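sorry for the late reply, my laptop died twice this morning and i had to redo everyting from scratch. anyway the thing you sent over, i finally got around to it. pasting the sequence first so we're on the same page, its 249 residues, then the predicted structure underneath. double check i copied it right bc i was rushing
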Amino acid sequence: NMFFDTYYVPENATLVLVGDFESAEALALVKQYFDRVPRAVRPVPRDIPREPPQTEQRRINLTASQNWPLPAVVVAHHITYDGHPDAYPLHIAAKVLSDGQSSRIFRRLVYDEQIAVSASGAGSLIEDPNLFYAVAVVQPGQSTEVAAEALIAELDRAKAEPPTDQEIQRAKNQFARDYVIGRISNSDKASHLAHAHVIHDDITTADGELDIFLNVSKADVQRVAQTYLRDDNRLVMTILPRGAGAGRR
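ok and here's the structure:
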């Protein structure tokens, strides 16, 4: 079909070889098997329209289309793309806020106030602008509005105060762990090299980003929180179970 013929072409592909091989022999095999693939009949489109900036907070309620035992609340903000200078402190901010049981959001909603049975989030940093989102699955008998306001309060606190020394060190430790473990296998190495080439157009970022991440400051984290976690850049989505017993709003 036209979509396949447009995008599944050599001009839109990156091939990475990782392992113990002789380069000349490997390149000969690449030519043998890949030279036969037809070139694109038209240029690969790169002019993907950008989503217009959000100018005011949006709140929506949805009913789950499938079985969904408990209400959930999602708070999301538009963020920038992978490779932008803000992406590095955004990664750290996401870990401080929402990565693991010692993160701010989990501690507040699950441990301290027992509003949610689980709470997590992530900064989805990819080739194009995407979202930072936080999700809370609401404790039975608790209000989705209370859960939403608790999520928002933690996001607002990130703007008002930088992470503590302990929080930012924990986040950097998590990142360094992921950085090492995520490069153990040949497949992992190939994936990171491909990412560096395709997303950053710079193969050296496969290793060079480690120092950038480890030098992110507390002020950097607070700055990106103030930049992206704004009220007018916020979506609050409440997802309710189907049928009776949907829980309190």
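Residues 99 and 247 are 27 Å apart (CA to CA).
thats about all i looked at so far, will dig more tmrw
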